[in-house]
Design goal:
By secondary structure, the chain is mainly α. It has a domain of about 100 residues: Orthogonal Bundle (Cytochrome Bc1 Complex, Chain D, domain 2), CATH 1.10.760.10. It is about 60% helix and about 0% strand. Helix 2 packs across helix 6.
């Protein structure tokens, strides 16, 4: 008699644990996804931090090897690559940082500016290298004041 009542109780308990575990896993997954989305949004407002991730130390190596000839070691740019083109970007320009997203910067690096003489780096640099360069640009050159208006909106 005892086994007739114990087995259904054990099965019920195991099913309850399985459903509780699944709902806990789902809740944790949703919290994690929400936290990651919030972190991505909040880093957009922090000077020196890229929303794309990337390693600034690795980005420095790529920047020094590929970007310094036009943007200079100190990031001030100003070099005209072709007579009819615009001078290379000054990465210390706070107004520029206020108007550009990391996705736009990534697109600019990937596609270049042929009319100004900047080559397209897509296919030359790996996607991770481009993300690392963007992280380095934020870390090294983004003025702190460039992110203040976005932070003030909160």
């Amino acid at each position: 008699m005892r086994s007739r009542f114990v087995r259904p109780a054990v099965v019920s308990a195991l099913l309850a644990l399985a459903f509780a575990g699944a709902s806990t896993w789902l809740a944790v997954t949703q919290i994690s996804a929400t936290s990651q989305a919030f972190a991505a949004d909040s880093t957009a407002e922090q000077p020196g931090v890229s929303t794309l991730g990337g390693d600034p130390a690795k980005g420095k190596v790529v920047f020094e090897k590929n970007c310094v000839p036009c943007h200079k070691q100190d990031g001030t740019g100003g070099i005209k690559l072709i007579a009819t083109g615009n001078p290379s970007r000054n990465f210390h320009d706070g107004a520029w940082w206020k108007t550009k997203t990391d996705a736009q910067i990534q697109h600019s690096i990937e596609t270049g500016f042929p009319k100004s003489g900047m080559v397209a780096w897509k296919g030359v640099l790996k996607p991770e290298e481009i993300k690392n360069v963007i992280a380095y640009l934020h870390f090294k050159f983004q003025p702190k004041a460039a992110a203040e208006p976005a932070a003030a909106k909160k």
